[in-house]
């Protein structure tokens, strides 16, 4: 009997040991193994390279919290961050990234234009695995053919591990002092700064100005054709695919031409107070941006796209004729809205703005009021 008890206790100890080791392999259960000084080392190295980290001059861009288990460094990071009198809304952009991405940090000093980039390894040994400092001041890099070629070489060499465009455009945009914080919030989700996301910000402001999001009003977005703008609508309006707030699809070149006015999407405004549902079809013309931004046809993308972003950051330019056009406004019902959501339906065809062959069709089954064209330009107010 005693022998059986001994065997039972022995088996119990083996199972308990196995359980303890298995718990240690669960994310978050072995957090005590990480290097608690790693964030202090990153900040100290950045200070040494840049000559200091000052609230009025420093922007930190990082994907901390996105890579697997990187959350274990969050408390230490913010401890180092706030002890230098930095502010979340002024000195930090935490971008979203995939779980299998490296943990990285970019410390930008706007006075010098220098940026120190770090990657951190923390799976086996927690340490700074890569560090480089480059000057990324846009005016300096884009000044001469030689400076452009020199930066192109560094882009091709992936000096920031492929994040050169994102870090350069975000940092220089922030350095102007005109990068709207609400746009920065969209960049957190989008991961980089480009005219696609800037156009979404302009379109979002246009909608909010002309069809205000007051209590009882909601948007359903058919972002068709799709480009980077969708992330603005998700971030700004919480129109996520999971909640049925946004539907994304493409258009053929033939369909775009048939609709005209550079279609950007259909914004369905449901007003529970008025009992109405309106499908607002908008266009956004990048030709206007390209003509006004000062970019040249032979400029590399990091120049032409940043110049476009700069132009779109200036709200005075949002009034430019043809930039945003109201292609059509159509009163619809719940059944039509549900039909627009079906996977095999083109929402423009459902609204009668295209026929199934992709040609323009300004009426649907001869019913007036469906497929009516407005092609209006409405000047925007500065916000």
Describe this structure in words.
- With 383 residues, the chain is an alpha+beta fold.
- The chain has 2 domains: 34-177, no CATH class; 195-350, 2-Layer Sandwich (60s Ribosomal Protein L30, Chain: A), CATH 3.30.1330.130.
- Helices cover 39% and strands 18% of the residues.
- It contains 15 helices and 10 strands.
- The strands form 2 sheets. A 5-stranded mixed beta sheet has the order 2-1-3-4-5, sandwiched between helices. A 5-stranded mixed beta sheet has the order 7-6-8-9-10, sandwiched between helices.
- Helix 8 (181-190) packs across helix 10.
Give a quick set of tags describing it:
single chain, 383 residues, alpha+beta, 60s Ribosomal Protein L30, Chain: A, 2 domains, 5-stranded mixed beta sheet, 15 helices, 10 strands, 39% helix
Say what the CATH topology of the largest domain is: 60s Ribosomal Protein L30, Chain: A
Strand percentage lies at 15-25%
Terminal CA distance reads 83 Å
Main sheet record: 5 strands, mixed
Query: How many individual domains?
Result: 2
Q: Based on Cα principal axes, name the global outline.
A: globular
How many DSSP helices? 15
- In round numbers, the mean pLDDT is 85
CATH class of the largest domain: Alpha Beta
Q: Structural class given helices, strands, pairing?
A: alpha+beta
Give the uncertain stretches in residue-range form.
19-32, 362-378
Q: How are the strands of the largest sheet arranged?
A: 2-1-3-4-5
Helical content, roughly?
25-40%
Order of helices and strands: HHEHHEEEEHHHHHEHEHEEHHEHH
Beta strand count:
10
């Amino acid at each position: 009997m005693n022998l059986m008890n001994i065997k039972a206790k022995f088996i119990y100890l083996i199972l308990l040991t196995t359980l303890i080791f298995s718990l240690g392999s669960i994310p978050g259960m072995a957090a005590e193994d990480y290097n608690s000084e790693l964030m202090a080392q990153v900040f100290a190295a950045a200070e040494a390279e840049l000559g200091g980290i000052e609230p009025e001059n420093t922007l930190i861009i990082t994907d901390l919290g996105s890579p697997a288990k990187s959350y274990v460094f969050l408390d230490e990071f913010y401890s180092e961050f706030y002890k230098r009198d930095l502010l979340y809304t002024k000195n930090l952009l935490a971008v979203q990234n995939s779980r299998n991405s490296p943990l990285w940090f970019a410390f930008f000093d706007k006075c010098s234009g220098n940026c120190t980039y770090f990657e951190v390894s923390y799976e086996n040994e927690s340490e700074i695995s890569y560090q480089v400092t480059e000057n990324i001041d846009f005016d300096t890099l884009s000044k001469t053919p030689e400076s452009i070629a020199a930066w192109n070489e560094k882009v091709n060499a992936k000096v920031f591990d492929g994040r050169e465009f994102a870090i350069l455009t975000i940092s220089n945009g922030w350095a102007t002092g005109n990068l709207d914080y609400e746009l920065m919030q969209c960049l957190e989700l989008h991961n980089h700064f480009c005219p696609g996301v800037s156009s979404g910000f302009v379109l979002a402001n246009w909608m909010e100005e002309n069809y205000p999001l007051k209590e009882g009003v909601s948007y359903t977005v058919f972002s068709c054709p799709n480009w980077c703008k969708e992330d603005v609508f998700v971030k700004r309006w919480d129109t996520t695919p999971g909640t049925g707030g946004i539907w994304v699809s493409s258009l053929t070149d033939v369909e775009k031409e048939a609709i005209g006015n550079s279609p950007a999407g259909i914004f369905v405004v449901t007003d529970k107070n008025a009992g109405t549902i309106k499908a607002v079809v908008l266009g956004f013309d990048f030709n206007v941006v390209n003509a006004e931004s000062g970019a040249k046809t032979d400029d590399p993308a990091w120049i032409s796209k940043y110049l476009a972003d700069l132009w779109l950051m200036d709200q005075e330019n949002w009034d430019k004729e043809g930039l945003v056009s109201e292609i059509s406004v159509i009163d619809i019902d719940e059944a039509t809205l549900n039909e627009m959501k079906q996977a095999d339906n083109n929402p423009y065809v459902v609204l009668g703005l295209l026929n199934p062959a992709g040609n323009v069709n300004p009426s649907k089954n001869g019913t007036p009021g469906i497929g009516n064209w407005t092609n209006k330009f409405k000047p925007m107010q500065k916000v």
